[in-house]
Write a structure and sequence with these properties.
This protein has 290 residues and is an alpha+beta fold. The protein contains 14 helices and six strands.
C-alpha cells in the first residue's frame, strides 16, 4: 500500500505486530492494549483517521501473511486451517474492493476487532461461531438468585475445575460463511470442531456462549431455533440465566417480524442466557455422534 512514508517510518507496521504479540494469552477478543491505543491516537493526531484506516489495512494484510506461514505447522485440523484461509481471503477482498464504510478500520469497531483477532490467530474461525480463549464471567453466579449461585459454583469447581481457560464463542455477522452455517447441521459441525480442538488443548476446560438464542422462551416463540440451546443442555451442558439487555432486544427483533411484534405488544421480553459445555461431556458427545 502506498501512503505517507513518513508515517511508516515513524510507526512501522512491524512495531504494531510486536505489540499485538505482547497481548495476554487469556483475554477478551475486544482487548486492545494501552500501547496500541496510544499509537493509534498519535497517528490520528499527526495524520488523521483516514490514514490510520489505511495503516490498519496494511496491518491486517501483514498479519495474514505472517499467519499463513504460522498455520503450516500449527496443531490445527486442515478443516480449521481452511476456515482461516476463507476468512483471510474475505478480509483481503474487502480491502481491495473497499467494501466497508469509512470508520470500519478503527477501534473499537467490533467487526474490525474480530478481523484483527482472526488475522493474528487470537480468534479461531470454527464455522457457525468464532472462538477465543477467555475466562468464564463470574457475573452469572449473581444474576438469578441463590440456586443459580450454588449450581454455577458447583459446576465451576467440580466439573470445570476452574473458570479458565475456556473457549468463548461469538457470532460474526459480516462473515457470510459463518452466517450460512446457522442451522442444525452447521452447529453440529461447529461443536465437533471445538471437540477436536479440546482434544489437542488439554488445558481448555470447555466452551461457553451468552446470547438471546439460548433463551428457553424460543421453544414456543421460535421453535426452529430451540436446537441452539438443546444441543448443549441435552448433551451434558449447562444453562444459566443472565437477564434482559438492549443488545438482546435489538438482535432478536432485527430480522424476525414475529419476535418484534411480540416484543412491542409486551408478550416477549428478549433475555440473555449462558450455555456452558464442559470439555469432557462435549468430547464424549462428539465421539458418540460421529
Amino acid at each position: 500500500m502506498t501512503y505517507n512514508r513518513k508515517l511508516l517510518s515513524k510507526y512501522p507496521v512491524s512495531k504494531y505486530l510486536d505489540l499485538i504479540d505482547q497481548y495476554p494469552g487469556i483475554e477478551i477478543y475486544t482487548y486492545a492494549s494501552a500501547d496500541i491505543l496510544q499509537l493509534c491516537r498519535e497517528i490520528i493526531t499527526e495524520y488523521g483517521e483516514q490514514k490510520l484506516e489505511i495503516y490498519h489495512k496494511d496491518v491486517l494484510i501483514s498479519l495474514i501473511n505472517r499467519s499463513r506461514a504460522k498455520l503450516k505447522n500449527a496443531p490445527l485440523s486442515e478443516d480449521i486451517k481452511g476456515l482461516y484461509e476463507m476468512d483471510f481471503s474475505r478480509i483481503i477482498k474487502d480491502i481491495q474492493m473497499n467494501t466497508h464504510k469509512e470508520g470500519f478500520y478503527l477501534y473499537p469497531q467490533d467487526k474490525f476487532m474480530k478481523d484483527i483477532g482472526v488475522c493474528s490467530l487470537r480468534i479461531i474461525p470454527a464455522g457457525a461461531q468464532k472462538i477465543n480463549v477467555y475466562r468464564l464471567p463470574r457475573r452469572f453466579l449473581f444474576s438469578n438468585g441463590i440456586l443459580q449461585f450454588f449450581r454455577g459454583t458447583i459446576m465451576a469447581m467440580l466439573t470445570l475445575k476452574g473458570f479458565q481457560p475456556i473457549y468463548d464463542m461469538h457470532t460474526d455477522s459480516h462473515d457470510p460463511h459463518l452466517i450460512s452455517e446457522w442451522h442444525y447441521d452447521g452447529w453440529v459441525r461447529f461443536y465437533k470442531r471445538v471437540a477436536e480442538l479440546l482434544k489437542v488443548n488439554s488445558n481448555i476446560i470447555g466452551i461457553y456462549g451468552i446470547g438471546w438464542p439460548f433463551d428457553p422462551q424460543l421453544e414456543h416463540i421460535s421453535p426452529r431455533q430451540a436446537y441452539l440451546r438443546k444441543l448443549v443442555t441435552e448433551n451434558g451442558g449447562y444453562l444459566f440465566y443472565i437477564g434482559p439487555s438492549m443488545n438482546a432486544i435489538k438482535s432478536s427483533t432485527f430480522k424476525s417480524e414475529k419476535r418484534r411484534s411480540l416484543y412491542e405488544s409486551g408478550k416477549y421480553i428478549p433475555k440473555e442466557y449462558m450455555v456452558v459445555w464442559p470439555r469432557k461431556s462435549l468430547i464424549a458427545w462428539a465421539n458418540g455422534s460421529c
